[in-house]
Amino acid sequence: MFKKQFHLIFLSFLILALLSCSKKETKVSSRIQAIPVSVYNVTKPRDVEVKLEYPGRTRSISSVTIFARVTGILEKMYFKEGQFVKKGDLLFLIEQKPYKAEYDSAKANLEKAMAEFKKAERDWKRIKSAFEDKVISEEERDEALYKYETAKANVEYAKARLEQAEINLSYTRVLAPEEGIIGERMVDVGNLVTPGTQLVKITKIDPIYVDFSIPENDLLKVGLKISKIKGLPVEVYIEGLPFKFNGYIDFVDTVVDEKTATVKARAILKNSEKRLLPGQFVRIAIKGLKRKNVIFIPQKAVIQTPTGPAVWVAVNGKAEMRFIKLGESTEDCFIVEEGLRPGDIVIVDNLMKLRSGIPISIENNYRK
Question: Which of 27, 167, 210, 264 has its CA 20 to 30 A from that of 12?
Fold first, then answer.
């Protein structure tokens, strides 16, 4: 009797334990099945605007090395290395005294030559009239004409000397030939400079160039001819920085490089705030292009795995991983070259909670 009661009690406890485990398993199963997700329904292929994006490098639109044009001691420097200068700004002063003296002398010589010319001109007019009245001889007339023409030539010579002296004096003030960033000085104040001595370099950075290359395959994808690339708008940015620069393509090479299968190109940008400097690495995106008959998905749906990009798709109420091949990006979407087809249901959120075969609950449809 006692054994029978013991068996009944044990059986009761066993049933209660099984029921408890069953409830826990039901709760776990319910929790797994309840993962809510939003999905995107892959649409039929259509034309999509894309941005072809490449690495690029900035380059100055021009760089000018400034030379001394007269001999003398470099007396003053009026800039700080690395600062921005405008066209016409005073950069250096070379000793002026010798050239000022030369200028003053040339000016005095011109005044003397002008006085001699005026006298010779008056004499010539008087003697010419007297010769016509047959008062003086032909020899006296020729002598007066010679003095007049000589005085006139002396005036022209004195003017040329004064102009040259004025130019030499102006060369003692070394001015910036254009605006730009001024580099490191190549000579110190107090040194003797001669014509041809390098003083400093000015690099123009507004506007500024960006050199880059376009893969031949990309041109084929968008059906773009080399002749049609020039003039297309571009957007340039530096990774990690918030500001962007707009410009356009102003040069495209006419041949494809056999080694790299790319076409060399160049864009020109406004850089009025001087944020870009020559030699910087940037990203450049060509705008205004279209891919025809392609499918696309939201960028947020793509996950990166060790074997490449993938997405989660909804298949019969469960999550299934699908590896894909991505194309270009457009706004917040990726073009899909392989791995998906119209009608596929792509999961766009709660991606970190998903595992292959896990049940899902579709809550929302993501729309583009």
Answer: 27
- Using one digit for the tens of pLDDT, what is the confidence trace for 281-327? 999 999 888 888 889 899 999 999 999 999 999 999 999 999 999 98
**Cis previous bond, 45, omega within 30:** no
Q: Give 72-106 pLDDT, tens digit per residue.
A: 999 999 999 999 999 999 999 999 999 999 999 99
Residue 285's contacts (CB-CB under 8 Å, 6 or more residues apart) are 51, 52, 53, 54, 234, 235, 236
Domain residue ranges in the chain:
51-60+205-288, 96-171
Cα(120)–Cα(361) distance, integer angstroms? 113
More confident residue, 291 or 110: 110
Range 55-60 average pLDDT: 96
Interval 329-368: pLDDT, tens:
777 888 898 999 999 999 999 899 899 999 999 888 877 6
Q: Is 260 left (phi over 0), alpha (psi -120 to 50) or beta?
A: alpha
Residue 297's closest CA among 305, 306, 309, 287?
309
Distance CA 356, CA 100 (A): 90
Q: Which residues contact 110 (CB under 8 A, 6 or more apart)?
A: 155, 158, 159, 161, 162
Q: What is the CATH number of domain 51-60+205-288?
A: 2.40.30.170
Cα 18 to Cα 54: distance, rounded to the nearest angstrom: 63
Phi, psi of 39 (to 5 degrees): -130, 160
Contact 40, 346 (CB under 8 A): yes
More confident residue, 11 or 289: 289
Tokens of 231: 């003039």
- CATH classification number, 96-171, choose in 3.30.1130.10, 1.20.1250.20, 1.10.287.470, 3.40.50.150: 1.10.287.470
Distance of alpha carbon 347 from alpha carbon 300, whole angstroms: 9
The amino acid sitting at 301 is: A
Q: At what angle do helices 138-170 and 97-132 cross, to 10 degrees?
A: 160
Q: What is the C-alpha to C-alpha distance for residues 227 and 264, in angstroms, rounded to an integer?
A: 13
What is the number of other CB atoms lying within 10 angstroms of the CB of residue 290?
Answer: 13
